[in-house]
Amino acid sequence: MYLRAIHAESSLKALFELIQSNPLGVLTTAIPSTSYHFIQSSHIPWVLDIISDDPEAPVKGRLRGHMARQNPQAKAIIESLTVTGSPPASPLQQEVQILFTSQDHHYVSPKFYTETKPSTGKVVPTWNYAAAQVYGKATIYHDSSSAESSEYLSKQIHDLSQLCETSIMDYTGERGKQAAWKVADAPDRYIEIMKKNIIGIEVTIEDIGGKFKMSQESSKGDREGVIEGFNNLGSEVGRNVAALVRKRGEMKDVVKK
C-alpha cells in the first residue's frame, strides 16, 4: 500500500478501530502449488484480539477467522501443510496479508474543487477511502478430528457471530431491540457438521499500516467544496465521507499549526 505521508495513519488505535468497524478483510496468500494458483485471495470476516498499541511491539494483535474447506485457497493451504507433515494446528510457512477497507468510500468529481478548478482547471478525479493493511504469520486449524481445531472453531464462530449480531446488526436485546442469534440456537450436531467443513485461521499482526485518504492534500477551499459536493449527493455514504473529509482536514490544519 502506498502510504503518502499526508494520508498515512500512524495510530494503531485508529487502525484497530477501522478493522473492528469493517471486519470483512481480504486474505491474500502466495503458496507454491502444482494444483492451485500461486496467489489467492478470499473475503473473510475477522475477530480482532488487541494485544498492544505500541508500534514497536513484535505482535500487535491477532486476527481470528475461518474459511470453507472447499475454497481453493484453503485447499492450497492444506496441501502445503500436508506436504510438510504439520500437526493439526500448523504454522503456515509463508507470510500472509489481510486488507480491510472502510465501508465509507466514494469517487471524487473534479467539479467538487470549487477553488482550484475555476482558477486553473488543473484538477483530476480521485477516490476517497480508508484502509488498513496487515502482514503476519498464520496458524491453520485444519484437522477436523482434533480437539484443538474443534475448540478453536467453536470459540471463533461464537465470537464472530456475537460481534456481527451486536455491533453490526445492533441485536442487543436492550431497550426493545431484538436479541442476538446465538450459535447455541442451532442444533449441536448441525454445528459439528458445519465445523468439519471449515478451517480456522489465526494471524498474528506483526506489521500494520493504513491510510485515510480524505482530501487532506487539497486546499481548505477545495476541501469545503468536496464536503459540500458529498453532502449534496443526499446519500448516507456521501454524508459520512463529507464528515470524514472535514475531520481529517481539521486534523491536518492542527498539525500545520
TrEMBL record:
<protein>
    <submittedName>
        <fullName>Transcriptional regulator PAI 2-type</fullName>
    </submittedName>
</protein>
<dbReference type="InterPro" id="IPR012349">
    <property type="entry name" value="Split_barrel_FMN-bd"/>
</dbReference>
<dbReference type="InterPro" id="IPR007396">
    <property type="entry name" value="TR_PAI2-type"/>
</dbReference>
<dbReference type="Pfam" id="PF04299">
    <property type="entry name" value="FMN_bind_2"/>
</dbReference>
